[in-house]
Amino acid sequence: MTAETVLSNARLVLADEVVTGSLLIRDGLIADIASGSSRIGEDMQGDFVIPGLVELHTDHLEGHYAPRPKVRWNPIAAVLAHDAQVATAGITTVFDALRVGLDEDADMTAVEMRKLADAIEDSVRQDRVRADHFIHLRCEVSAPDCLDGFGYFDGDDRVRLASLMDHAPGQRQFAQLSAYATYYQGKLKMSDEAFRVFCERRIAESEANSPANRAAIAAACQARGIVLASHDDATVAHVEEAVSQGIRVAEFPTTAEAARASREAGLGVLMGAPNVMRGGSHSGNVSARALAEGGLLDILSSDYIPFSLIQSAFFLGEVVDQVSLPQAVAMVSRNPAEAVGLTDRGVIEPGRRADLVRVRVDDHVPVVRTVWREGRRVA
């Protein structure tokens, strides 16, 4: 039996324009688009209808599983709480970021990362989740146990993305030691002497482990068809290294120089939606808004605030002259989907998945009213 739904009187944000009209959903796919009021269906009351959001890098799940130091929640319950929050923020495809390679900042083990992955995958199989979930491995290449942690995901086809990260002081995200001190010394409550020892150890680990771990993980991902992302590139040399390793997405470049080099090399430049909304990076790095104004921004990620993804898209479409609403929406839907090879979603056009979000904007804040995944209402 054919299942059909009609959404009428909607402002449809298409690939290149916004039109008022109706949308026909048939068997989970977008079947037809009509401008004007020629089709009767569920009245969207003039609200926007945009493609479902695609989130490539969110650390949000960890907070549900480990809400306090030494506290652990049921992993399936943590997945469901995380899933409910991302879905009601308009995210219909989410890459849950799990750590590979653990340091002092991680209050978890590799076994726990695998436990969370199992909870994600079991919840997908049992149809418990609202969004479509994949796994993004955040590989801390400076950590001695990075390859051991990566091994826990050998053969896991839910892993579609891996990022190569090095959070040691004096480079990339924390090129300035003062920024590193502000973040880590405050977070871990260390004395000046303890912080000095901490930095020396992290730098030594990076020098000893990063080159070999980068190469090994890059080769493994290329062999398995896992999309690779760089992380916090700061220089042209960093970008050249990323290109040599088969990187396709440049996550959170810390300078305009690195963002420009990434774009020129054909990488998708990804920045944080919180950076857009705050007007700058919490680490003092380049502004995502400035990159958007310069035509150097392709993809947005909610990072640590799920709702920031849809908020930043409507914000950029409203306040940045160089970015139209369809272009801003593409940064949270079509562009991230295409970057990881998901060509069946991300755009409102016939034949694509009916992953859709109904949005009303009140006082410059988007209000998510309804969310559909493959034509089924999930929020």
| CATH topology description | TIM Barrel
> How far apart are the termini?
24 Å
Uncertain residue ranges = none
Radius of gyration: 21 Å
- In the CATH hierarchy, the architecture is Alpha-Beta Barrel
The profile of the biggest β sheet is: 8 strands, mixed
Class by alpha and beta content: alpha/beta
Q: What shape does the CA trace take? A: globular
- Topology pattern, helix = H, strand = E: EEEEEEHHEHEHEHHEHEHEHHEHHHEEE
Q: Helicity level, as a percent range?
A: 25-40%
Q: Return the domain count.
A: 1
Explain what the structure shows.
It is a single chain. The protein is an alpha/beta fold. It has a single domain, classed as TIM Barrel (Alpha-Beta Barrel). The protein has 13 helices and 16 strands. The strands form two sheets. Strands 1, 2, 3, 4, 5, 14, 15 and 16 form an eight-stranded mixed sheet that branches. Helix 2 packs across helix 3 (110-125) and helix 7 (236-244) packs parallel to helix 8 (256-264). The two termini are 24 Å apart.
Give a summary of the structure in a few sentences:
By secondary structure, the protein is an alpha/beta fold. It has 13 helices and 16 strands. The model has no long low-confidence stretch (mean pLDDT 92).
